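ESCALATION

Customer reports they have been waiting on this structure for their group meeting. Please prioritize. Original submission:
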Amino acid sequence: MAKTLESKAKSFLFRELFQNILIGTASDRYAGWIGQIYSEGGSEKGITRRSHKVGDKTFNEETLPVESVAEYFEHFPLLEIDYTFYRLLLEKDGKPTQNFHVLRNYRQHMKDGDFVLLKAPQIIIARKLRRGAAFVENETYLNADIFTKQFYKPAIEILDPCLNGIIFEQEYHPKNDRFPPAKLAQDLDEFFSKIPKDTRFVAI
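Update from on-call: job pushed to the front of the queue and completed.
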């Protein structure tokens, strides 16, 4: 039994190693995983490339196409999708955003038993947002109506029953800019009392 588990781990097959523990990664489309998680010759034709400059150095980012997620789920039962942190799924007028279309594309390549975690958008959970070189107060912070209509409901529409959880990630605050813990707890309690009841919400 131990040798079987060791063999699976060395082959990057983590899906069934532990029956009651879901092991996964944050993001999935790294071209650097070809030869480990992704098979050689599988998705190379669909790789997109972007150049980034940090200081005086330039590096290339290579991203696999969405359909590669089908092979990801051969190795892991769970995936955290974090790009939803940066944009809602629907605009104010109900028009689908790019994130909506990408998420729906993911779902088309998933099967029963494949699970995802989504990050709630920063426009809902972040007290301040970066605008240019400054951070400004977020007018939609903990807006239950926007969260429900423009994120939660379309996420359920696309992913159920593959949605395993929604992560509400609190951003870092300098010590002199933090809410008192009691105030933060009160605000979160009020927010969660207004949105649909769901045991898949996780605040971190």
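Sent to customer with the following note: DSSP finds six helices and nine strands in the chain.
Escalation resolved.
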